[in-house]
C-alpha cells in the first residue's frame, strides 16, 4: 500500500501531520485512509500531487486533528506499517524549530503556479504613501496589468503588455538616467550584458522590453526564465523560484509623478537591476544556490537567507581589482543609492553569509552597511558552505534535464546522482585529453 521509499521519522508530541506516497491504482487511497481510521486518527486536511520520484505515484500530505493524533496512536500506526511490509510514513511536526518539520516546497516548475496568487502587498493594493495611491487611472492600470500575471500558468508564453505613452516616458526617464552611471558604477558583467539586451531584447530609451523576449534570451544564456507576478511574494515563495532558475518579475511601472523613485519593485527595477546578471553563468549559479538552500528550510532559516539575499542580489558590491563596483539590483536600479554605495559614507564589509544573515537592514532608506564579494564564484562557494549549517535533514539538487528538484534522502537517489557526476566527470576528462597544448 505505502511504498518503502519515504523516510521514517519517529513522531514526537508535536507531530500533527504526515506524508506518504501511493501508487495510482484502485483502492490505494481508501486502504491508506482505512489504516488511519483503524488507529483513531482524524484528518482536518489532505492534499496530493504527482510524485517526481516515480511515474504513477502520488504524494499525500495529511493534517491530523490534535485531539486524536496522540504520540501513542502515531507510534502504533508506524509500527503496523513497518511490520506489515506495507511501506513507510514520514511524520511532520507542527513546530518549525524541530528537526522533523519539513515545510512544503515546490518540486517542479509547475508547482510555482500554487504561489501565483499569494501576493503579500502592492500589486493591485497600494499603500497610502504610494505615489499612485490617490490616482484612479493609475490604480485601474495596475489592476489591468496584474490580471495578466494572475492568469499566467507555467508553460505559457508571458502575456505582452501594450505600454501607454505615459508608461513609456517613465521607462525612458529611468533608462536614460541609469545608463549614464553604469560604465563607472556597475560591475563588468552588467556592463557586458546590457548591450546584448539592447541588441536581442529591445532595450532602448523609446521601447519598453517585454518579459517573454527577455526570458527567451536568459534561457539561451544560462537556463534562467522570467515569470510574471502580481506583486511582492513572501520570502519563502520568492526564494523557492530561484531554485528553479526562475525569477518572479512584475510588469507594471512606477507612477509617472516620480519616475526616479519607487517604494516597491517595478518593471524598471526588475529588468534593469536584476535581469542583466541572470545572463552571467557565475551569478546565475550563485543566485540559484540561495534558492536551493531555502527549500524545506525552517521559518528562522528562511529569514536568514532572505537577509543574505538582500545583502547580495539586491544590494551587493563586488571587487574589481583595486576598485569596488555594484551588482545588487537595488543599487543598479537607483542612481541615488548607486552613487551613495560607492562613496565613503557607508560601511563596507567582506561578504560572510553568517554575518549577513543576522545583520539588520532598513527598507526605506539607503543601507548603512554593504557586503563586498570577492567574486560570484566565491560567493556561491560561501553560500553552499553556509547552507550546510542550516537545520534541514536532507539535501536537494536541481536536475537541469527535468527542471525538477530532487531530494537526496535515500541511498538510491544518492547513487543515481553519483552516476550523473561520474558521467559528467568522464566527459570532462575526455575534453581535457583532447585539449590542444
Task: Describe this protein's structure.
The chain is globular. Mean pLDDT is 87; it is low at 1-15 and 92-100. The protein has three domains: 15-93, Alpha-Beta Plaits; 109-310 and 375-382, Orthogonal Bundle (Phenylalanine Hydroxylase); 395-434, no CATH class. With 437 residues, the protein is α/β, with parallel strands linked by helices. It is built from 15 helices and twelve strands. The longest helix has 24 residues, at 411-434. A hairpin with a 2-residue loop joins strand 7 (317-320) and strand 8. Strands 2-3-1-4 form a four-stranded antiparallel sheet, with no helix packed on it. Strands 8-7-10-9 form a four-stranded mixed sheet. A two-stranded parallel sheet has the order 5-6. Helix content is 43%, strand content 15%.
The CATH architecture term of the largest domain is Orthogonal Bundle
Average pLDDT taken over every residue: 87
CATH fold type of the largest domain: Phenylalanine Hydroxylase
What is the count of DSSP helices, taking H or I runs of 4+ residues?
Answer: 15
SSE layout:
Blueprint: E1 15-23, H1 28-38, E2 43-50, E3 57-64, H2 71-84, E4 90-93, H3 136-151, H4 165-185, H5 188-201, H6 211-222, E5 225-228, H7 235-243, E6 246-249, H8 267-278, H9 281-294, H10 299-314, E7 317-320, E8 323-326, H11 329-332, H12 335-341, E9 347-350, H13 353-356, E10 369-373, H14 376-387, E11 395-399, E12 404-408, H15 411-434
Parallel strand pairs: 5-6, 7-10, 9-10
Antiparallel strand pairs: 1-3, 1-4, 2-3, 7-8, 11-12
Helix pairs in contact: 7-9, 9-10, 9-14
Amino acid at each position: 500500500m505505502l511504498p518503502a521509499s519515504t523516510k521514517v521519522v519517529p513522531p514526537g508530541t508535536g507531530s500533527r501531520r504526515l506524508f506518504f506516497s501511493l501508487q495510482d491504482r484502485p483502492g490505494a487511497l481508501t486502504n491508506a485512509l482505512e489504516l488511519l481510521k483503524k488507529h483513531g486518527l482524524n484528518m482536518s486536511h489532505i492534499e496530493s500531487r504527482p510524485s517526481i520520484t516515480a511515474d504513477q505515484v502520488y504524494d499525500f500530505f495529511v493534517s491530523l486533528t490534535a485531539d486524536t493524533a496522540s504520540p501513542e496512536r502515531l507510534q502504533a500506526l508506524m509500527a503496523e506499517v513497518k511490520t506489515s511490509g506495507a511501506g513507510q510514513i514520514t511524520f511532520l511536526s507542527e513546530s518549525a524549530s524541530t528537526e522533523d518539520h519539513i515545510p512544503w516546497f515546490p518540486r517542479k516548475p509547475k508547482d510555482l503556479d500554487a504561489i501565483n496568487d499569494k501576493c503579500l502587498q502592492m500589486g493591485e493594493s497600494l499603500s497610502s504613501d504610494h505615489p499612485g495611491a490617490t490616482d484612479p487611472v493609475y490604480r485601474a492600470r495596475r489592476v489591468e496589468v496584474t490580471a495578466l500575471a494572475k492568469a499566467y500558468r507555467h508553460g505559457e508564453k508571458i502575456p505582452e503588455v501594450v505600454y501607454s505613452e505615459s508608461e513609456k516616458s517613465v521607462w525612458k526617464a529611468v533608462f536614460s538616467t541609469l545608463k549614464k552611471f553604469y560604465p563607472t558604477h556597475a560591475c563588468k558583467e552588467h556592463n557586458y550584458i546590457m548591450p546584448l539586451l539592447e541588441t536581442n531584447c529591445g532595450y532602448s530609451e523609446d521601447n519598453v522590453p517585454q518579459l517573454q523576449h527577455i526570458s527567451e534570451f536568459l534561457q539561451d544564456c544560462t537556463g534562467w526564465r522570467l515569470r510574471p507576478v502580481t506583486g511582492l511574494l513572501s520570502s519563502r515563495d520568492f526564494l523557492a523560484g530561484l531554485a528553479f532558475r526562475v525569477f518572479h518579475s512584475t510588469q507594471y511601472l512606477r507612477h509617472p509623478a516620480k519616475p526616479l523613485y519607487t517604494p516597491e519593485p517595478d518593471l524598471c527595477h526588475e529588468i534593469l537591476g536584476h535581469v542583466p546578471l541572470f545572463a552571467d553563468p557565475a551569478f546565475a549559479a550563485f543566485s540559484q544556490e540561495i534558492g536551493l538552500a531555502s527549500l524545506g528550510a525552517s521559518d528562522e532559516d528562511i529569514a536568514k537567507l532572505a537577509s543574505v539575499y538582500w545583502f547580495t542580489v539586491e544590494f551587493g558590491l563586488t571587487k574589481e581589482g583595486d576598485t569596488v563596483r555594484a551588482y545588487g539590483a537595488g543599487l543598479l536600479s537607483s542612481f541615488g543609492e548607486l552613487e551613495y554605495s560607492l562613496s565613503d559614507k557607508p560601511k563596507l564589509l567582506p561578504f560572510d553569509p553568517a554575518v549577513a544573515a543576522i545583520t539588520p537592514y532598513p527598507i526605506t532608506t539607503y543601507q548603512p552597511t554593504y557586503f563586498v564579494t570577492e567574486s560570484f564564484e566565491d560567493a556561491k562557494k560561501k553560500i553552499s558552505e553556509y547552507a550546510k549549517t542550516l537545520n534541514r535533514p536532507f539535501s536537494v539538487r536541481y536536475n537541469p534535464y527535468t527542471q525538477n528538484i530532487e531530494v537526496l534522502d535515500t541511498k538510491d537517489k544518492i547513487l543515481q546522482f553519483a552516476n550523473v557526476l561520474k558521467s559528467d566527470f568522464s566527459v570532462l576528462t575526455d575534453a581535457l585529453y583532447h585539449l590542444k597544448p
